[in-house]
Amino acid sequence: QVQLVESGGGLVQPGGSLRVSCAASGSIFSVADMGWYRQAPGKERELVALITRGGSPKYSDSGKGRFTISRDSAKNTVYLQMNSLKPEDTAVYYCKAQIYVPPWTVYWGQGTQVTVSS
């Protein structure tokens, strides 16, 4: 049984920073790409950033410039550092990972709420 557990969400003022984490646990042979998505009320889930097994980050327009994705492969954990947060960043942030159990399977976390408000 593989689980992705996010943590670190919360309430932050505009201009503030927040770091969310996602740890994969269970019977894991290997982890490939890991990523962060978000879903705001009334909107579709969108990609924020992903990071390859080799550590190469890729950002969508929504994540470029203010967000930094990183991973600790020894801990099967991915992080998203979010700076200069804006109210429009308010959303549920979900972690996604491709994990070789086997076979290769895509897993999602349960989501963590990030609210940017004064």
Key features of this structure:
single chain, 118 residues, mainly beta, 7-stranded mixed β-sheet, 4-stranded antiparallel β-sheet, 11 strands, 0% helix, globular
What does this structure look like?
The chain has strands spanning 3-7, 10-12, 18-25, 30-39, 46-51, 57-59, 67-72, 77-82, 91-100, 104-108, 112-116. By secondary structure, the protein is mainly β. The strands form two sheets. Strands 2, 4, 5, 6, 9, 10 and 11 form a seven-stranded mixed sheet that branches. A four-stranded antiparallel sheet has the order 1-3-8-7, with no helix packed on it. Strand 7 (67-72) and strand 8 (77-82) form a beta hairpin. The protein is globular, with a radius of gyration of 14 Å.
